[in-house]
Amino acid sequence: MLRLKTMQKGNPLKAIFFEKFGTRDVLQFGDRPEPAPQQKELLIEVQRSSVNFVDIRERQGTYNRPETHVGGIELPHISGLQAVGTVIAAGSKEDTAWIGKKVVAYTPKGGGYAQKVVAETGFCVEIPESANADLFAALPNQGLTAYLLLTASTQIQPGESVLVQGASGGVGSLAVQIAKILGAGTVLGTASTSEKLDFIRSLGADDAIDYTREDWTKRVLENTSGRGVDVILESIGGDIFEQNFECLAPFGRHIIFGSTRGPGQPFAPRRLMQKSQTMTGFYLPVFLAKLELIRAGMEFLVKATLEEKLRPSIARILPLSQTAEAHRLLEDREVQGTILLDTK
């Protein structure tokens, strides 16, 4: 392993980890061994990390349940799917040119809730030293999800209409903006409070709709001349999942990437035939088999942010030691945008 001369090898680092599944109380703040980069991996001294809803599901043990069908994690575990920092070591001789560079990294195996993290070289993108770490730390997991929903799960066409459910969250707030960058026409976002609705409008959405109102689908139809939207990005679940079909246009695409309210009632797929609609599921780790899409997504996100076309929204910055509070804020739906962790 090759590293900066000023860096000492193997020092313990502070991290948030858990040794059993459960509530926020299982999160521990303490010393962990420094990870060692292997071939085609980089060791990054983390400046900023961030919190995703996926981290909460990991902590709860959701992905380790047989019925989830998405594998799981080994304990003890350090969550954290993204980070910004400086490369201090490389596992491969051919990657030594990365040492000393500031990067944004996607870390699908976790580890971002720590002062140092290992990331695959292919999942890192260099950013200018002067770049705002806060903006880029909010990008990888949420941004890749939003980008791939609109370019891989479907390919948004110029002028098409898009409805983003839960548009005030980390993924939703980026999806609204990315849809516009990609040439969408009418872009609508939903949320549950007036404050969040104002936030969605500030992102450039054509309208923001309260999905807790019984007539929310009528508002979508009004915005689309009664036709409905071409694409729905669905992350709420429960009764909202079913109501989506009241405002999905003929040939519309219904894409599911979450279910914060739970899975809802079973769905009869033959009903899609009535309007030639489609329904697609999305789970970001599956895309790890298509590295070219991950790389293209990371480069798109960095470029759009540097050009100020994409504005990641920062909800709060908390010390690493207060990660449990970050989980609470996210679980209680008290935030708009992304919660960052300061690892210093």
TrEMBL record:
InterPro entries assigned to the protein according to its UniProt record, in alphabetical order: ADH-like_C, ADH-like_N, ER, GroES-like_sf, NAD(P)-bd_dom_sf, Quin_OxRdtase/zeta-crystal_CS
Superkingdom, taxonomy of origin: Bacteria
Pfam families: ADH_N, ADH_zinc_N
Name under which the protein is recorded: NADPH2:quinone reductase
Entry EC number(s): 1.6.5.5
Domain Enoyl reductase (ER): 22-341
Organism: Granulicella mallensis
Any GO MF annotation of the entry: NADPH binding
EC class (word): oxidoreductase
PANTHER family: QUINONE OXIDOREDUCTASE PIG3-RELATED (PTHR48106), QUINONE OXIDOREDUCTASE-RELATED (PTHR48106:SF13)
GO annotations of cellular component type: cytosol
Keyword entries, A-Z: NADP, Oxidoreductase
